[in-house]
Structure formats: structure tokens, C-alpha cells
Amino acid sequence: MNELTDDCVACGTDGRDAPRLVARETQDMTGETFVYRLCQGCGSLQIDEVPDDLGRYYDASSYSSFAVKTSLVDRPLVQNPLSRALLRTMGAVHRRTGRGLGLRFVRDAGISPRESVIDIGSGIGENLVHMRLLGHRELVGSDPFLPEDVDRNGVTVLRRHHSELTGTYDWVVMNHSFEHVPDPHAMLASAARLMAPGGRVLVRMPVMGCAAWHRYGMDWSQIDAPRHLVLYTPEAMDAMAQAAGLRVQRMFYDSWSFQLWGSELIRQGLPHKGASLQQARAHFSRQQLKAWEQESRELNERGEGDAGGYVLTRA
Predict the structure, then answer these.
(1) Fewer C-beta within 10 Å: the chain N or C terminus?
(2) Poorest-confidence range of 121-130, 240-249, 272-281?
């Protein structure tokens, strides 16, 4: 269901008189432009009209979440029992100390290997496969844009809309998928339905109103038109959680230097091709990239980063 009407989908403010701003398609720089509305109530940025053919913007050649990567998880070395035991140990060390091999959002959110996880909008399931190698066991992914169900390294990823999912889980995770959906209230309702007693929801997404937005405006790399339908402020997320019978227990910031070098590429009229550091190194010096990474850490510490995670519980 498309809930993106003239009113702000987050706070309900009438959007007919909201400022209209133009965003370019920037992953491939196709020349297409899309109109967004800046809500005068909560400050969220919402696409004015969802493309009828939205699915074509998610093919594997142009959208990295659907491309199977040749990475650690695909190497034969990690398939033997000794390697898997070592990886689980390294994952445990990372969860305790933040050092070594691990996924930062898992530690920031506090997801235990003993807890079950469903990742809604997981793409090909890259994060879940990494989690499994690091000691997590009960993992399921889902994404309606997959061509078919996928079983990859022991992780099942279902070609399902969130409304079609069943079961209950300790964690319902949305890793940068919430900003992609035209039915955010229904998605939060699905998350609440899938939560086990005492369960939690983790929503990771761009943070509208951040320092990068104020610096770059419509060249901010996280706008990613037309895939990102709505860029929400923390105030908007609070309101939407309450409407779903949930509450924001806490929030953490986890932005990185892409907010700066990706936006700089866009300003120069260059495609950013997802968030590939290889591309960044082709255009910016090592010293510049290092400085941007340091600045990104400082922005996170000040609560001004351009991406973060919301941990939700039942209200």
C-alpha cells in the first residue's frame, strides 16, 4: 500500500505548501530527477511521487545490496571447522571490546548470538551471512525485490513482502530498508507483529537534518533518489514508533566517510556507485579520505552523523 500522500507520512503535516526540492539519480547519474517535499512539521524529506517502475532501480548491476560479493564469506578457507571456530571467537571478542572482526551494528544494538533475528529488506543477505560466521545461528532474511528465495551459506533469504512474513523473533532488523518503503506505518506494524515477547526492533537508516544535509543539501549522498522514498528525522521516528505502539529506547549514530566523499562526488557530477571505497580512492587522496573518516567519527560522537540506529521496544 502506498501511504505517501500529500501529507507527511511521518507526522501528518499537510504537504501541499511544503517546499519542493529536486534530487538527481546519483548511483549511475542517469540524468533523471525526482521532486522531494521538505516537511514543515517534523523536517523529513519525502519523495513527491513514487515511480511506478521502482523495481528497476534495484537490479544487481546498479544496486549493491543485490550483488553477491566475493568476500570473506565466500572463500573456501572459512568453510572448515577450525576456521569457523576461530571466526566465532573473533566475533565474541568484537562484541565485548569493539576490536577485531565483527559487525559494528550488532555490537551497537547489543544483538546476542543466542537471539533470533529476521532482517527485513536484507537484499541478498550479506550481513546475515557474516553474522552466521561470527556465531549467530537463528537468522532469516527477506526482500520483495529478490528474483527468488535464496539459501546462502546456511542463511535463508525469502522473496517476501513484510506483510507475508510469519513467526516471532527476538530482533526484527531493518538495515537501511525502512527509507525504501512506501508503507512505513504498515512495516512498523509488521515489525511489532513479528516481535517475540521482550523482543526489540532495530531500524538503521539515514538521519535527516544531520550535518551533511546542512552542508550539501540535495547533493547529500544519502538522498539516493528515487530509492530512498523518505529521509526521516529523529523526531519523525519517535512519532511513528508511538503510532505503532512502540517507543525509541535508544539511538546510536554509525555514519562513516561516505557521507562526505559520496556527497563530494555528487557535487562534481560523478556517480557514487553505491558506497565503494575503491571508487573514492580513484578521486580523492588517502589523506583526504582519512580526514573525512576522522570527521565522521567526531560527528557521530556529537550526535550529528548522517546515519544511525533506533532500538525500539513495546511502549
Answers:
(1) N
(2) 272-281
8 A C-beta contact, residue 155 and residue 129: yes
Asked whether the beta carbons of 233 and 140 are under 8 A apart, the reply is no
Q: What is the pLDDT of residues 2-42, one digit of tens each?
A: 578 789 999 999 998 999 999 999 998 999 999 999 999 99
Report DSSP letters for 8-25, one per residue: -TTT--B-TTSPEEEEEB
- Determine the Cα–Cα distance for residues 213 and 219; give it in Å rounded to an integer: 8
Q: Residue 131 in contact with residue 112, Cβ under 8 Å?
A: no
Within a 13 Å sphere around the CA of 126, how many CA atoms are in the beta-carbon half?
Answer: 13
Averaged confidence pLDDT in the chain = 90
Q: 85 burial class (0-12, 13-18, 19+ CB within 10 angstroms)?
A: exposed
Cα distance between residue 22 and residue 193, in whole Å: 36
Instruction: Enter the C-alpha cell of residue 305.
Output: 552523523
Q: Distance between CA 158 and CA 252 in Å, rounded? A: 28
Residue 51: is the preceding peptide bond cis (ω within 30°)?
no
Domains of the chain, by residue range, sit at 20-314
Instruction: Give the CATH number of domain 20-314; options: 3.40.30.10, 3.40.50.150, 3.30.390.50, 3.50.4.10.
Output: 3.40.50.150
Inter-residue contact 91 to 101 (CB < 8 Å): yes
Under the banding of pLDDT at 50, 70 and 90, the label for residue 70 is very low
Strands (E), 14-77: 20-24, 33-38, 45-47
Return the closest-CA partner of residue 23 out of 44, 45, 39. 45
The strand pair at 169-175 and 117-120 is best described as parallel
